[in-house]
Amino acid sequence: MARSIRTGYYVREGVSSIFTHGFMSFASVFIIVACLLIMGSFSLLAVNVNSIIGEFEDENIILAYVQETMTVEQARALEGQIEALPNVRSAHFTSREEAMESFISKYEDKSRFDNLDASVLRHRFAIYVDDVAVMAQTQSDISNISGIAQVNANLLIARGFVILRNVVSGVSIVLVAILLIISLFIMSNTIKLATFERREEIAIMKMVGATNSFIRWPFAFEGFILGLLGSLFAFLAQWGIYIAVSEAIVNGGFGAEGFLHTIPFSHIAIPLFVVFVAIGFGVGIIGSNTAIQKYLKV
Fold first, then answer.
1. Which DSSP category does 196 fall into?
2. Which of 192, 200, 209, 258 falls 20 to 30 Å from 101 in CA-CA distance?
3. DSSP-assigned letters across all residues of 36-69
């Protein structure tokens, strides 16, 4: 019973302090929102860039041509061997007749190909890999399969994708880490400024015998509430900005059928919300506790 009464006191004092120091409370929430938006926007940009790169990687396939002497049945039988190789996600077989039909369908005047026999082409496999970083090794493994005459893989483009993916990932991690450190520093100091105004109040409470935990808990609840408010406002703002940017990309002709598109917000909303709330809580509570630490030594 006593504990619940004390908890109620802590909550009331924390909420009361927010309204008593309205300007500094507003400043704390604003800083939390601004910093979370900066980190969130850059993180979402990196996530979408990596998604686009991943889709381009998926389209970078390996073409394996079967020996001319093999029948359709013999050629199809190689599919299991190819898909059993490491790094091979799937292999799709195309007969020479299907390849010929696909080739002719690209032209309006099909009569020019009337005398062209499908035997000039080869049966082939379109092979999709899991990781383009080891595409060269996969190409070598496919070439070693008996019945495969030739393997074509665009290793130059694959290496380009690997370099781009590594650069984007590395830069994203470094910049987000720097922004997180800066954000923690700014938000903690903002809360310290709010606490500075209450140094005399803390000193009086210490003089009348209040324990450190009794003094600290209202500040902890205050930081908790400010962090929660900041994270919620930041999430809603991030949601609106993300939707606006996504619609601008589609309306500008880059999305939909274009090469640029964004991940649906519903796919990333929950992880983003969890991260925002965790950072908001952490910064609010840690900032408020570190801010009053030196005043508790009175």
1. H
2. 258
3. HHHHHHHHHHHHHHHHHHHHHHHH--EEEEEPTT
| Same domain for 187 and 147 | no
Strand partners, 124: 65, 94
Confidence of residue 9 (pLDDT cuts 50, 70, 90): low
Nearest to 138 by CA among 130, 251, 214, 193: 130
Please spell the DSSP secondary structure of 270-294, one letter per residue: HHHHHHHHHHHHHHHHHHHHHHHTG
Q: Which of 153, 184, 200 is the last residue of a domain?
A: 153
How many domains does the chain fold into? 2
Both 120 and 263 in a single domain? no
Are 24 and 67 in a shared domain?
no
Domain that holds residue 75: 61-153
Amino acid at 196: F
pLDDT at 118 over 70: no
Question: Cβ of 238: how many Cβ atoms within 10 Å?
Answer: 23
Which pTM does this prediction carry?
0.67
- Segment 210-221 mean pLDDT: 73
Contact indicator for 123, 72 with CB cutoff of 8 Å: yes
pLDDT at 18: 65
Looking at residue 27, what DSSP letter applies? H
Same domain, 132 and 209: no
Q: Residue 4 carries which side chain, given as an amino acid letter?
A: S
Q: What is the CATH number of the domain that holds 68?
A: 3.30.70.3040
pLDDT at 167: 84
Strand order in the sheet with 124-129: 88-94, 124-129, 62-66, 148-153
Give mean pLDDT, residues 104-108.
Answer: 72
Task: Give the separation between CA 291 and CA 68, rounded to whole angstroms.
Answer: 78
Q: What is the residue whose two structure tokens read 């400024």?
A: 193
